[in-house]
Amino acid sequence: MSDNLDKKKVNSAWNYHPGIPLQNNSLFRLPLYSSFLIAWINRNWFQLSEKVILVIISILIWYFVYPSLDQTKNFELTWIFQIWVINLVLMIMIAGGLHWYFCIIKGQEKRLKFDKREQGKGKLWDFSNQVHDNMFWSLTSGICQLTIFQSITMWLLANNYSPVNSFISNPFWFFGFFLFLPIWSAFHFYWIHRFLHIPFFYKRYHSLHHRNINVGPWSGFSMHPVEHFFYISSICIHWILASHPIHVIFHALYLGPGAAMTHTGYESLLIKDKKRLALGTFYHQLHHRYYECNYGNEEMPWDRWFGTFHDGSQLATEQTRARKKVMHK
Question: For the chain, which residues score pLDDT lower than 70?
Fold first, then answer.
């Protein structure tokens, strides 16, 4: 391949991984050079990326198929059902489309795939099938709770119980909020995630998500209902900070269908042997394999600050296993 993609197989435990040890790509690293910040903004917001795709979808949904604020002033099953259908269809289209491409027709075979294995079958999963297990939890508890949080938020905005922002009233905040929401979600996710790794909660709730050592598109939003509640509660930020419905839709997509994009098990989508769309990260793949590490994501510094960062090296693996033994003994 033209960019030496197949020459990075340094560790035989993986089918593919980026350079090891992983570098510090946190947006909050010190010193923060202007060149790094500009490159981060360009990579995430001025090129084809998960975030840009979800913003475009959010705008289209709001203007063409979403209930208006006038409709959501009173709780009615019609508009709540409308939001549920939208969430359901988008989850099936995005997670299902990615699964079809990567796992069924194997559109890029195993190029840039982290784990060597295919999606699993057996008694570990409900329905004895990893994909069916993941689909069930994503499309039932996941979509239901996502709809509930969205519906409450829309009702609050419609009745001015939560501050409403528009492009006309404050264009700087309107655009800035899109940059803020992934950072907020990463912050919220880290602390909720650490909480769910307390052995009491892990065994009862979070272990369902961790059945997926080898992740696939349907794995990202597959969780126990209790975990869904805590994870999706990130949307409550719109109850406090001035938001537009497009922000709410984007946030919901980022948490739901967006999780399918980051859990494909592949680093990027290849088009003509070139990386065109960043998807999963090896950072989070390490968490799914070794559990007690990399609770957050690369954009936030918490794992590095609190000693739970796994850089992909054998030494980090040994340290993580030692920490896991202490936590779960």
Answer: 1-10, 329
